[in-house]
Amino acid sequence: MLDLVNVSKLFNPGTLDEKVALMNINMKFSPGDFVTVIGSNGAGKSTLMNVISGVMKPDTGEVRIEGSEIQQLPEYRRSRWIGRVFQDPMAGTAPRMSIEENLAMAYTRGKKRGFGWGVTTSKRNLFREQLQRLGIGLENRLSAKVGLLSGGERQALSLLMATFTKPQILLLDEHTAALDPSRAELITQLTEDIVSELRLTTLMVTHNMEQAIRLGNRLIMMNKGRIILDIPEERKQSLTVSQLLGEFERISGQQLSDDRIVLG
Amino acid sequence: MLTSIYGAISLGLILSLMALGVYITFRILDFPDLTVDGSFATGGAISAIMITQGYNPWIATLGALAGGLIAGACTGVLHTKGKINGLLAGILMMIALYSINIRIMGKPNVSVVNLPTLISPFHKPIGLYIAVLFVAIIIIKLLLDAFLKTDLGLALRATGDNSRMIRSFGSNTDTTIIIGVSLSNGLVAVSGALMAQDGGYADTTMGVGMIVIGLASVIIGEAIFGARTVFIATLAVIFGSILYRIVVAFALRVPWLEASDLKLITALIVIVALVLPTIQRAMKQKNLARKRSLELSTITASDQGGKR
User: Fold this and answer.
1) What is the ipTM metric for this complex?
2) Does residue B171 sit at the A interface (CB-CB below 8 Å)?
3) For domain A2-252, which architecture applies?
């Protein structure tokens, strides 16, 4: 499905500020894998997302989707396989446009955009149906400007927009971190439902250790641009937060330092 | 007085096409494009020279449109592919067009007086002229509205609103910027072409200050009519343009103002319109912050009181 082969990425190469963001990452993701990603500040989690989605190109190595190399394709050409939700609730939607217009843009993901109407009656019905699944009443506010929605509502909409054309891969970059706990819980629940229903191959970066263990079928831990731990489903089920932190200290020789970490 | 009002309305309608162009770059794409000053004259120059050479005025105006589309596309390419700052890309194109416009005309100005133009069949009476112009402008406005509701139009609007988001949905924002700036300057050039046919001549300096006049129209329109939907926003731009011309007509009647003060007045209108909302917002924010911190400090004070 998604393969990373010897992927490396440096920031400011050859200068005093040189920083290893990713070093020789080798990973294989099977269809339907739901992988949670944890690690300290600057471990390379966001860079990993950016290299897969095409925001950045790797310095060396290959990114393959269903066998074909895509590491040189720009982000807008990879979007037909990859849906993404950002941490910032403002990042995934266009605030001055209406809910239905935002959905219409998500609907044309990866297709050529021409002179067809963005919003039609049949699309509007589809959008309403999809919005109902979120259960927060957005289906009655199709023509409202997205800028008027709360952070939680925008993030729910972003999640729907990222997934409803069934991309093969879903990237979630701490997408609940900026929300209050009850909203974060709602978005987490929606994420679980959508991912399991559409069987999307999912990578989710999170600061919430309990969530990292509870969600998904595989957990990877990163440190200094490397994957230092890859826990399969069987072991993950019996794992506890303190075991996880212990593992990190044992392998990296330091405490898991993250100013936003949530132990669960 | 009445004649000058009629004149203001007809000129406002002609320049509203230019203002719609400015609306596309400044408001939709969030790209301050200064090409306008050059491409306006380019439109005038192309249409005037083609009319003097005996071309049908429709063809001449379409030629102006093509010239504007190309000029805008050049600015867009300089900005997106050449990575030149948007303002500078526009200024560079504007300067280049100044020379190009003289090349097009072969001299600094060209007269089309007494030649058949798009406007000559309707020029009199003034009531008919305004009606014809109004209908024509509204048709163009509706076409623009419709375009902005297509898949491509939505991508264009999202490029100015949240470019990161629309890229993640598979739109090449370089392309949408080039299309938008090109379309904008196409409208500006048609406006320049109509201006030349209305005034009877094209001149290399006819575009000077157009970007500011366009901005003034956009801002006045928004202030009065709002911009809730695309339909309202573009209508507001047209009325803003007419209103701006009427204000100018009145300003010119003030005894101690000279016609040459016009650009200063225009600049002042835009400055006030841009600064006022910022000050208002800052004051509102400050007051809200003060109120909230007072509220919070009383809450924490009572909390600590409770613990003791």
Assistant:
1) 0.88
2) yes
3) 3-Layer(aba) Sandwich (3.40)
